[in-house]
Design goal:
heterodimer, A: mainly alpha, B: 3-stranded antiparallel beta sheet
């Protein structure tokens, strides 16, 4: 930056553009991270739901089989 | 990452970029509105805090910025008071009242009243002070601007707009204050208590309290105060005219984005005109004549928007301000005065257009979003692309805003134009106000239109929000480039001209604009720019390279630039020193264009906020105004009157397939409202109320949805199962049995994380739960129906179980359902008990109905009901009263299937036995047969035994086979005479026959069930055969010179090879583990050997019955001659011969035949007993009837013996003889199976010829 030719009052403005661009980059990145977190959230919920479903299924089966087996013992 | 490690910015950014590469699959179709767990919004609006940094801007504008910043703070504060007023709930109603002056706890009540109300009263007090402060500030500003010296100065558009916003605020606060009676009531309650307790000690407090009382009690206090204060300012009307005109101009040129801004413009126009209209002084009609304002245009706008939404259900009717003006002249307001309905009430008219726009925009967006998502960019986007994306973003925001406006405007109009029982027949006479404004106020089409538009808004919002990162990047880059191109390149021309013409004023402004926002390449201004000294560019051009950055101007920067440019081109009347004329027309046009476009930059740079403001539909739920109107009768309205639920429920009720996928959008309105309650209203109780309603609605929603999904699939399954020819024949007879209209429930069923009030809901799971229960109930209903009827119902039961199985299969594709067989077992109460309800009922019916009441006929192989029953009618449970979708699906299907199955209700035959086999299984059949055997045993040792004993006593001691000489009439006569006592035995033809029939029926049942079971088993085996390497032998045609057997072997080998992949054992051995292979082998063996040893149920049954016949009664005394009894009647077969004689005698015309009453079960019982007692041969040889037949064969006589037709008797005997023979052969087939192999020849005991005693001794 050739500061000699730059009028003094211009320098902060010029610097402001650079600073704000920097802030935008950071903001943009935070935005990306939030976007990621949000999609991670939905994705996890979807997978957890599937897992939950499988567990429920197993649980019910065990329950059913238990009920069947108990019959065998009591007779 | 180890702590202490330094991460560079580049590294950090790379890490963020890498996040994009992580796959985050989500399988669910997107039919939901935008719902973010984390909502990130960066707000860079400084409210002019950084104005001093822009030293190069003109002092005048920085000063204006300062004032604006102050006014903005006032606006914010005003907003808070507006919220306070709107959400005010009456407290005093809940506080106990002091009833009389003698009440002992009266002081305590007053103290508590003051304590409770104090914080609220403080707020009201602040509100009063705020009114004064705001009005003063506003009037000061107006006074300053209307000062004679200042009047001609340029006032920026942004500034006038801020004044407009203040006017709007006054109008809103005034309306809210008028509306809330509860505020006044609360305050008077407080004041009463405070005065009693003498809380307000000092003079000032008393005064303030008095003032507040007046302030609250006086209607239109704010606007009247404002008006009277303005009236004292010279020339205020011109300034207000400017404000009104700028609002008009912005409204006409669509210079607004968010719905609230549009509504603000309209309110400012109306309220502004009201302020300018004085009894003595300014008069808007005169101003109109002077063309200072244009009433004709405003007239149209006010008609377009008769009702402007404020908060929730609060509206402002702008035209009312005009009407209340002192100089009101209706003739100047033709549109507003006309009785035509306002266009805002008509959403349906513009629906087609909305759809087209939506489709068009979605396609454009899809193109961009696909490109952004799928392609990796090598180079950054070009300026052109950035511009396109920016325009696309703006277009989207404006569309969203437009649709939101239309929804909200329709809603407002409807609220203020409630229906009544005359207009809407469905509206009851007693419907309350809010109900008439919401529930009954929309036609079906309007509700659908609302749902559709809301769905478009929410759907598009989601899509645009997903594109936010792309949009923001493009927007910032585009705005930066646009701005820098403008200031670095374009502005050189006007600058050169101004310099040349030595117009310092313009030059200073342009330089100031340039310096405020220029961002030179590498921070260096180009040296020796000829434009700066008014000279021409060199012939090869003066090249300036504009840098690229990913950042827009700051809010203050943008404001300053726009305002200064505006001052250059301003042409408003009253401004004298217009610089516009000094400038080149071309330049002015470009600057104007830039000024117009840059208006939206602020919105675009705050894309996220704009997007949310444009889609805000939260106010559809709020109803504080109507609640206030009920005067405390209602704490809250029921969900049936709540817009979000009305819309959701409408979809559920109509089941419109095209709307079904929209169903989550109206529910999302609750999210909006809850968000608004928390973030804007900041009222816990409102959130709680929303939440309570959501809890209620969501339960209803899941219930209704699951129920109709279940009904839909049941209907589908029922339709699939219905016989096609039956359907076709019904069709030709004019009865249409329709399939269900295809509906898109699948999409809904795939929803695993629906966001509602911050909770994530697995819709699939909830529906699964419900459907599981419904299926369970459905199976239960099927079994209960069976239990309520006779055994023929077993066919319908199987059909019902099948339809449920099919429903289960259809839904199992989308939902997690319990195993069907497990469910069936549960419904059948068969999980832990060895036999279920079906088995029990089958047995019950067999015992109670089948054995006593059915008659077998071998010709049809069916049982039919007896003509005359000897048993009491069975009392069965009542059939369950379940709704149609728990049975076959629809009323019509129920009717069809009932008709079809009624064909099976008149008899019991092969289909029933097959069904019994399938439903009961081995275990069930074993139980039933075991129990039947017990019944038979009880007969044989009980009733039957007793009857036999009795009858034996009635039997003659001897009964001979008469010689042929007597002739058949003689023989008949003889038997009749001999058996007279027997024949006359009273219970013979009823109870005795009935008992034997029951035994016969039981035996027949066992026989037929085994036959059916065998058929089922063969089916099973045939189905299993291909997997067990059992291939049918192909036919090899005989040919000369060929070995047929060798060829057959070869073909078989080929076939074996071909189907090798089907061999289960082989495949499992190859692919599974050891245990699996073992199981497969065992299974295979079990299947293979199932029928091998040829065990027969029936044989065992007979053997068991044989074992019951131990009593000597059955066998009689051993023969005296040591060989056999011939004439003596002490064996069972003799008894049976007598019985047979009885039923062979023909009957009268009006009597029922034995066949009709008892069927062949009777014969079977006799034959079985005879066979099992080993008396078959003796029976055949010595039977009375057979003898009669033989004699008749010889003499062929047809006489009438004592009223009995001999011929008929003989015919009957012949018939029964054939029948008996058949039965004996069947029995022998079963009983002799084992013997035939072991003993091929029958053992005959040979007796030597009888020798005379005299001879014997001689030898």
């Amino acid at each position: 930056m050739s500061e000699k030719q730059q009028p003094v009052h211009q320098r902060p403005l010029q610097q402001d553009w650079a600073n704000r661009e920097y802030i935008e980059v950071i903001t943009g990145s935070i935005k990306k991270i939030t976007d990621f977190l949000n999609s991670f959230d939905t994705s996890c919920r979807s997978r957890l739901a599937t897992l939950n479903q499988k567990l429920t299924e197993l649980e019910r089966r065990v329950e059913y089989i238990e009920a069947r087996v108990v019959k065998g013992e009591s007779l | 990452m180890a702590s202490g490690d330094k991460v560079t910015l580049t590294n950090a950014l790379e890490n963020v970029d890498v996040l994009d590469d992580l796959p985050l699959p989500d399988q669910q179709p997107c039919i939901e509105a935008l719902s973010l767990s984390v909502h990130y919004r960066a707000d860079f609006d400084t409210n002019f805090e950084d104005k001093n940094a822009f030293v190069t801007s003109q002092a005048k504008y920085t000063e204006q910025a300062t004032v604006q910043a102050d006014l903005n703070l006032i606006l914010e504060e005003g907003q808070e008071y507006a919220v306070m007023l709107y959400t005010w709930r009456c407290c005093s109603r809940a506080i106990p009242q002091v009833k009389s002056n003698e009440q002992p706890n009266r002081t305590e009540i007053y103290q508590k009243t003051v304590e409770v109300l104090q914080p609220h009263v403080n707020k009201l007090m602040d509100f009063m002070f705020f009114q004064k402060k705001a009005i003063d500030l506003f009037c000061d500003e107006v006074r300053r601007l209307c000062h004679r010296e200042k009047r001609t100065d340029f006032v920026s558009e942004a500034y006038l707009l801020t004044l407009g916003k203040l006017i709007n605020m006054f109008a809103e606060l005034d309306e809210l204050k008028n509306m809330k009676a509860s505020v006044r009531n609360d305050y008077s309650a407080y004041r009463r208590a405070a005065q009693f307790l003498k809380v307000m000690a000092d003079q000032q407090a008393m005064q303030n309290s008095q003032n507040l009382s007046m302030n609250l009690a006086t209607q239109n206090k704010i606007r009247d105060t404002l008006k009277s204060m303005l009236a004292e300012i010279q020339g205020y009307d011109d300034l207000l005219a400017d404000v009104v005109n700028i609002c008009l101009a912005m409204y006409e040129r669509d210079m607004y984005l968010e719905p609230a801004e549009k509504h603000m413009l309209v309110k400012v126009m109306a309220f502004g005109l009201f302020m300018m209209d004085m009894e003595k002084g300014p008069n808007i009609y005169r101003m109109n004549e002077k063309k200072k304002i244009n009433l004709a245009k405003i007239d149209k706008i006010l008609k377009q928007l008769e009702m402007v939404p404020l908060y929730g259900d609060m509206m402002i009717a702008p035209y009312n301000y005009i009407k209340n003006g002192p100089n009101f002249d209706p003739s100047k307001w033709p549109a507003c005065e006309s009785s035509q309905p306002s266009p805002q009430s008509n959403l349906l008219g513009s629906l087609e257009l909305i759809r087209d726009r939506h489709m068009e925009y979605i396609s454009q967006l899809a193109r961009q979003s696909n490109e952004a998502n799928t392609t990796m960019r090598e180079a950054p986007r070009s300026d052109q692309e950035n511009r396109q994306l920016t325009e696309l973003a703006l277009k989207g925001l404006r569309l969203l805003s437009r649709w939101t406006q239309q929804v909200m405007e329709l809603y407002s109009w409807k609220l203020m134009n409630p229906t009544d029982p005359h207009a809407n027949k469905e509206c009851p006479e007693k419907a309350e106000e809010y109900e008439r404004a919401t529930r009954y106020n929309y036609s079906t089409e309007e509700k659908f239109a609302l749902i559709e538009v809301i769905a478009m808004i929410k759907g598009l919002q989601l899509l645009m929000s997903r594109m936010e990162a792309v949009f923001m990047d493009a927007i910032r880059r585009h705005i930066y480039t646009e701005l820098q191109e403008f200031v670095q390149k374009f502005l050189r021309e006007p600058l050169r001209k101004a310099t040349k013409k030595r117009n310092d004023f313009i030059r200073v402004i342009i330089m100031s604009v340039r310096d405020t926002c220029v961002d030179w390449l590498r921070g260096t201004e180009p040296v020796d720019d000829p434009a700066l000294i008014g000279k021409k560019d060199p012939s090869d051009g003066f090249n300036i390279k504009v840098p690229h950055r990913n950042v827009g101007p700051s809010s203050t920067q943008l404001y300053i630039v726009r305002t200064m440019l505006e001052s250059l081109i301003d042409e408003r009347a009253g401004v004298k020193k217009s610089m516009r004329k000094e400038m080149d027309e071309g330049h002015v046009a470009v600057i104007e264009e830039f000024h117009r476009r840059s208006f939206f930059w602020g919105y675009l740079l705050n894309f996220n906020a704009s997007l949310f403001n444009c889609c805000d539909l939260s106010q559809l739920w709020y109803r504080e105004f109507f609640l206030e109107l009920t005067m405390g009768k209602r704490i809250q309205f029921p969900i049936e009157m709540s817009m979000p639920w009305i819309l959701t429920d409408h979809i559920l009720e109509t089941k419109d397939p095209s709307m079904m996928e929209f169903i989550l959008y109206p529910l999302d309105l609750y999210n909006d409202s809850a968000q608004y309650a928390l973030m804007r209203f900041r009222k816990q109780f409102l959130y709680d109320e929303v939440e309570a309603e959501v809890n209620l609605c969501f339960d209803q929603f899941v219930f209704k949805l699951s129920d109709q999904i279940f009904a839909y699939y049941k209907h589908l399954a029922g339709s699939i199962m219905l016989d096609k020819r039956f359907r076709a024949e019904c069709m030709s007879a004019g009865e249409k049995i329709s399939y269900p209209v295809a509906n898109r429930y699948q999409t809904l069923l795939k929803q695993r994380h629906v966001q509602l009030l911050g909770r994530s809901i697995d819709l699939n799971r909830l529906i699964s739960q419900f459907v599981n229960a419904a299926l369970q109930k459905s199976i239960d209903v099927a079994i209960s129906r069976f239990e309520a009827g006779d055994i023929t119902g077993i066919i319908e039961l199987e059909g019902l179980l099948e339809v449920n199985r099919l429903t289960h299969k259809l839904m199992g594709e989308y939902l997690l359902l319990n195993d069907f067989d497990a469910m069936l077992k549960e419904a059948n109460h068969n999980v832990s008990a060895p036999y279920g309800r079906i088995t029990l009922h089958v047995f019950w019916e067999l015992n109670m109905d089948f054995l006593p009441n059915y008659c077998y006929n071998a010709a049809t192989n069916r049982f039919v009901k007896t003509k005359l029953t000897f048993e009491k009618d069975q009392k069965r449970d009542k059939p369950p009263n379940a709704s149609v979708h728990y049975v076959w699906g629809t009323r019509r299907l129920n009717h069809s299937f009932t008709t079809i199955y009624s064909l099976y209700s008149g008899f019991i035959g092969a289909p029933h036995f097959r069904t019994i086999c399938r439903l009961l299984g081995y275990q069930g059949i074993a139980v039933v047969i075991e129990e039947l055997l017990k019944t038979v045993e009880s007969f044989l040792t009980g009733t039957a035994h007793d009857y036999v004993a009795t009858l034996m006593r009635v039997m003659p001691d001897q009964c001979k086979l008469l010689r042929f000489d007597y002739g058949s009439p003689g023989v008949l006569h003889y038997y009749q005479a001999t058996l007279a006592d027997f024949i006359q035995y009273p219970d013979l033809r009823t109870e005795v026959f009935q008992t034997f029939k029951s035994i016969g029926n039981a035996v027949l049942f066992c026989l037929l069930v085994e036959q059916a079971l065998t058929q089922e088993e063969v089916y099973d085996l045939k189905h299993a055969a291909p997997f067990q390497n059992m291939i049918p032998k192909p036919y090899i045609p005989p040919k000369e010179g060929k070995d047929r057997e060798a060829e057959a072997k070869q073909v078989m080998k080929q076939l074996e090879k071909k189907y090798a992949a089907l061999k289960v054992v082989h495949v499992i051995e190859k692919l599974g583990n050891k245990t699996q292979a073992l199981i497969a082998k065992d299974g295979d063996l079990l299947t293979r050997e199932r029928l091998c040893c040829g065990l027969s149920i029936f044989e065992i049954v007979l053997k068991r019955i044989e074992s019951f016949l131990t009593d000597p009664l059955w066998h009689g005394e051993p023969p005296a001659n040591g060989v056999m009894n011939i004439d003596k009647c002490n064996e069972f077969h003799r008894l049976w011969s007598a019985i047979q004689f009885v039923y062979c005698i023909p009957i009268g015309d009006n009597e029922f035949t034995v066949e009709e009453l008892f069927g062949e079960g009777l014969n079977w019982a006799g034959c079985v007993l005879i066979t099992l007692l080993g008396q078959q041969r003796r029976f055949e040889a010595l039977d009375f009837c057979y003898h009669l037949l033989k004699v008749n064969r010889v003499d062929m006589k047809e006489e009438n013996v004592k009223g009995i037709q001999l011929k008929k008797v003989v015919d009957r005997i012949r018939k029964f003889q054939i029948l008996n023979n058949q039965i004996f052969s069947v029995l022998n087939k079963y009983l002799r199976t084992g013997d035939s192999e072991v003993m091929p020849t029958e053992h005959v005991r040979c007796f030597p010829p009888p020798i005379h005693q005299s001879m014997a001794t001689a030898i």
